[in-house]
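Still learning. Show one?

>
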Amino acid sequence: MTPLEMLLAQDGDPPTLTDLGGEDALWQQADTLAASPLWFRVVEILLAEWDTLQHPDQAATFGTQALTTTTSPAAADDLLDQLVEHPGYLQHASSQLNTLALERSRHHSTPLEAELAGIFLEAALRLALPGTTKRYALFDRLVDSDATTAPAAYARRVVRALGTAYEHWRDSDLLTALQRFSHTDVRGDAAYELAMCHLADAANAPDRSTLLQAFATARDLLQQAIDADEDRPDATAFLAALDAVLAFDTGNTTTLATATGQLRRSLTEHALWLTGTRTHWRAGRYDTEAAWYTLSCSLEHVDAHLDQPLTAWPNQTIQHVLTVYAAHRSVRLQPAEAATGLQVLVAPRIEKAFASRQGLLLHLRGLVADAPEDWDAHAAHQLLQAIDDRLQADAPQVQDPGKAAAAASYPQLAAELGSQLLASLPTHMLTSLQATYADWEATLISKLPIAQQHIYNDILAVLQSCNDFHHPTVREYFTHLIVQAIRFLHSRTNRARAHHTPRFAYLFAPEPDEKLPLEETVQEDLHDYLDGNLEEADIEVTDRSGGRADIEVRFPGFTTVIECKRTKGRTTRKGLRRYLGQTVAYQAGGITLGMLVVLDLTPKPSWIPNIRDDMWADHIPSPVPEQRDRWAVVVRVPGNRTRPSDMTTPAPAQ
C-alpha cells in the first residue's frame, strides 16, 4: 500500500489535497489510485475541493474512468449519488457519465451485474429528470422487454425508475413497460408503481369521472401490492388515504375515521422502517405520503363540522376547509398546468354546505376580509367565487309578486294583521290605525337630543328595507334597543377620565405598564347597561345559531344578538364590515336583525369622532337569491382616548 493509500485508508474525516501533498502529487499517482480499492475516496476529495482544482477536466475524467471498471455496488451507489448533483463535475462530464451509466445498465446477467446495472440506470434517470441530459436513450433502456427476465435486483430498480419517469413525463409507453412486470418476481413493486402512476393521474384529473376511475384502478393495484408482499406499509398508507378521500365524498364519517386511523398507523410503521437509512433520492414519495396523511386529517376535521348546524366556525376549522378545498395542491405528485385534481371530488360537498347555509357563507366572507397571514387567500377567494357562480346558476326566475296595495301602503299593519284582513278595511280606518301605531314611536324619539335623533333617523332609513323590522312587535322593541344603544354610546363618549371608576378604564389610553383592554370589557359594560333598561339581557349564551352569543337580548316573541369586538386597526365603516359575517350569522334562528358593538382602540391623539359618525345600520345582502337579506346596527365605541387638553390639532386630509 502506497503512502497516499495509507492516508486514504485512515478512519475519520477524509484527508485534504494538502494532506496528500497537493494536486500535482495526486496526479502523479493517478494510475495507481485508479486501480486501488480506495479510488472512491480520491473522487470524494476532488469533489469536496472542486472549486480550487487546477485541472478539473482531469478530475472529471478520473472519476468517470474509475466508475467504468468498479465492481463495488456500495461505492458506485454512494459516488453516483454525489456526481449526479455536483454542478462542477456535471459541467465537464455529464454526457460521458450518462453514456457510461446507460452502457453499464445493459449488463445484468449475474446478481452482481444486476445490482450495478440498476444503480447505473437510476443515475441515468437522475440526470434526465432535471434536463441535464436528453431522455431518449434512457427511454430505450426503461422499456427494454429483456428487463422482465433479469434478476430481481435489476428488475426492481427498473420498475421504480419507470414509476418515477411516468410521474414526470406521462408517457404511456412507460405504463405499458410497467405492466409487463405484473407476473414476475417483482410484481408487488410493479403493482405499487402502477398505482402511483394512476394516483398521479387522479391527482391531476380534469373531471370527476376520470378521477374516480383512476382512484379505482390505483386502489386495486395497491391491494395487489399488499397481497404480493407481506410487508407493504407504503401501499397500505396510500390505500387508506384513498379510502379517506372517497369516504369524505360520500359523507361516510365512520369509514373516514377508520381510514385516517389506518393511514396514521401505516405511516408510523413506514417511518420506523426507514429509520437509520440514508435519505434516498426518491424521498419525495415519502413526502407525498405525509401530504396525503395531512389531507386525510383535514378531511376528517372538515367532515366533523360540515354537517353540523354551525354558522360560526373558528379560524382553524375554516383553514382546514380551505386545505381540503385546494387538496390537489398538497398531494399532486407532478405539477400540471391548470390541473383540477382532487378538487373535483371534495369541492362540491364543501360548496354545497356553504351555499345552502347562509350563515357559513357570510362568516367566510367576514373571515376572508380579515384573514390571518397563514391563510390560503387564493383558495378562500376561489371558494367564494365557486359558490357565487353556483348560486347564480341555480337562482330561480323572478316571479311577479302581484299587487297588494294595502300591504304596500301600510307594511307595519300588514305584518301585524295580515294582508288579507288589511285589504278588507276601509282607508280611513287604516289611516287611524297607522297613526295610533306611530304615536308611541314619535313620543319615544321626541325625547332624544337632536344629534341622537339624527342617528336614529339614519338607522331607520336603512332598516326600512327589512321586512322583519316592519312587524309591529319587532319594530317596537328593537327601536327601544336602538335608543338604548344610542344612549350608551353617548354616555361612554362623554365619560371623563378624571371621574371614571376602574370599570370604565377601558375607554382610555392605558398607562405605560398596562395593556390595551380585551373585548370582554365593553361586552360586560354594555350588558350591565342593557340589563337595567330592557326586558332581559344575558351574556355568553350558548347554542345560538350553532355558536355562542356575546349578548342576547330577549323581547316578547323574539330575541336578538349583539356581537362584541375590539380592533386596533381598520375602523372605517368598510373596514368593520369584516365582522358583520359573524354578527348576522347569529340571525339564522330568528329575525334578520342584529347588532355589532366594536371597541375602537386606535390611538386618538387629535380627534374623537362625533357620535353621529360612530353609529349606523348596515344591510348585508344574501349570497343566495332565494334566502333573506340581513341587517345589523353598528356601534363603534371610541376607546384608547386621551384628555381633550392633550389633543393636537388634526392635520387636514391631503
